[in-house]
Write a structure and sequence with these properties.
The chain is an alpha/beta fold. The chain has one domain: Retinoid X Receptor. The chain contains 8 helices and 7 strands. It has a 3-stranded mixed β-sheet with strand order 3-6-5. A two-stranded antiparallel sheet has the order 1-2. A hairpin with a 5-residue loop joins β1 and β2. α1 packs parallel to α3 and α2 crosses α8.
Length: 239
């Protein structure tokens, strides 16, 4: 991989300086998301994401980079942000579980979205976007970003065990064998969840073979992972 000082996480990145943040408080009120409907089309599961959106908006508006990263290149700043994000994983204190609820997954996902926002705010091109474009980009890439980083973190923590034992980290400090894991969809699936379970089982198998195994073999450094995540973000957002 090329030297990190000449790499940019975005084609034609203009410079490595950090522009001043644009301050424009925009409180958001009462935003709910329809997750499931019944046979008549009536909502039966609603998620209130008002607090999440306000937290993200606050970070977009008020983010100020730490002084110790001001002189770094764009990629090195994003590596720094990734290392901060990964501090939530404690490889010497990981609990293995056999079940997890969708509520817990979503709750953790909300925290991760805020961390992904902070990661992207270390990128000059992202910071130069209009607020609505930043939010749209986050909406389009956060699932893929989170998924790739989770597999990359698992590969870094467990090495070959990830593939041999089919291990994946679920939430900070929690891991599981994907073949034995049971996900409680009760609050989010109107009808029986057998179809969802079958779909997720096949998906997890493919992810382990097509993403997990190569990541273990590549043994990526943190700067290489940061580059990969940045490129993924702009590639997905550009579609």
């Amino acid at each position: 991989m090329p030297d990190s000082d000449v790499l940019s996480p975005y084609p034609n990145s203009p410079c490595d300086t950090i522009p001043d943040p644009i301050i424009s408080p925009r409180p958001i009120k009462d935003v709910t998301y329809e997750v499931q409907t019944d046979e008549k089309g009536e909502p039966i599961v609603m998620l209130d994401i008002t607090g999440l959106l306000n937290n993200i908006t606050s970070m977009l508006d008020d983010f100020t980079p730490a002084e110790n990263v001001a002189g770094m290149s764009t990629l090195k700043r994003m590596e720094h942000a990734l290392d901060e994000y990964r501090q939530i994983h404690h490889s010497n204190d990981i609990k293995f579980v056999q079940s997890i609820s969708m509520q817990e997954i979503i709750r953790t996902g909300n925290d991760q979205i805020k961390s992904i926002t902070k990661f992207l705010m270390h990128s000059d091109p992202f910071r130069s976007l209009k607020n609505e474009d930043q939010m749209q980009m986050l909406k389009s890439i956060w699932v893929q970003w989170k998924r790739l980083e989770r597999y990359a973190s698992t590969a870094k923590i467990f090495g070959r065990r990830m593939v041999d034992d089919q291990i994946i980290t679920l939430t900070p400090g929690v891991a599981a064998n994907v073949n034995k894991l049971k996900v409680d969809y009760a609050d989010f699936v109107y009808k029986k969840a057998e179809g969802m379970k079958c779909f997720m089982g096949n998906f997890n198998t493919r992810m382990m073979d097509e993403v997990g195994r190569p990541l273990v073999e590549l043994e990526l450094s943190s700067v290489e992972t940061a580059f990969m995540l940045a490129q993924l973000s702009w590639h997905v957002a550009g579609k």
